[in-house]
Amino acid sequence: MDQWRAEAFDPGAWADLFRRAGADYVVLTTKHHDGITLWDAPGTGHRNTAHRGPRRDLVGEIARAAGEAGLRFGVYYSGGLDWHVRPTAPLVHGEDVHDAKRPRDDEYGAYCSSQVRDLIDRYGPDVLWNDIGWPDQNMHFDQGGLGELLEHFYRQRPEGLINDRFSGAHHDFVTTEYQAGEAPVDQAWENCRGIGQSFGYNQLEGPDQYISGTQAVRHVIDAVSRGGRVLLNVGPRADGTLPEPQVEVLEQLGEFMAEHKQALAGSRGLGELQIPGADWARAVEKDGRCHVFVVGDPGVLRIAAGDLPEGFGWPAEGVEVELGGATAVPVAVSSEASGPRATVPS
Questions:
Q1: Which of 191, 320, 342 is nearest to 271 (CA)?
Q2: Residue 73 belongs to what H/E stretch?
Q3: 169 vs 187: CA distance, rounded Å
Q4: Considering only CA atoms, which of 78, 83, 81 is closest in space to residue 29?
Q5: Residues 227-251, mean pLDDT to the nearest whole number
Q6: Which residues are 26's β-sheet partners?
Q7: Residue 135 CA to its chain's centroid (Å)
Q8: pTM for the whole thing?
Q9: DSSP-assigned states of every residue in 252-293
């Protein structure tokens, strides 16, 4: 680990990039399954980035940079697995991760609880983003238990949010990974995925594994149109810099969001539209105005009024859009409400 100095790590530049990309919040991986923490966590001795490798409190630096950039801050923590504290055999199947090969004892749960409590007290996160569940025997409200921990979080951060990976104990929102088409019904939800096929930096990934800026834009619009949000993962090299392909995707996403985030943020999803001649179309409504995003073959496409969401003032003759093809970002058209609340044609 000592070769990972992160000498070029600039948390302010990271936060500024995320803000330009349209982010509202940043969730940092503070401890993954290897058990290495990115701050001087209780119980880790010198097995953390404050004492080894970069010898820096990376959690604190990113938390401060996010706040200075006007972003909310959240912490990812692997409560279900820690291969240093509770070694396991190799994980081969999903069942190994979520059930058969995760620790369940109260002692390990208390170890995790003390670290998450330390994160809450030091950095005041707005989001607790746990992973791989929580030890079964720690599901209690006694000292060091999960119940006491979550109560402490809400006392410190009354507006804070908790994800759904605490083994069913409690959640404020539901999460999916990569499966963009799977939208939970009647629940707040968030889709998380990497810009590549890996969470974090994978030196073997290239253009075939990375999504493009256009694909990132469509991924965000699709989630919002279904009532969700997107947590898009980036991962640095050992020197602390973000790979250029990841930066490029975020910059291209930011160009689109600079013009259209106002229509997407806080909107009501109207879902997918079936528009003849278009390859892809999604709609949202915000403050009485409908926004439709369309992708299709290059050229002018006339969209009939009947193929657009009802209840808005679309021209009787429909609308024309000039599309740029599959590699271009979606084209947006919008209209004010003209009557009943909008519905999506079935």
A1: 342
A2: strand 72-78
A3: 16
A4: 78
A5: 95
A6: 73
A7: 24
A8: 0.93
A9: HHHHHHHHHHHHHTTPEEEEE---TT-SEEEEEEETTEEEEE
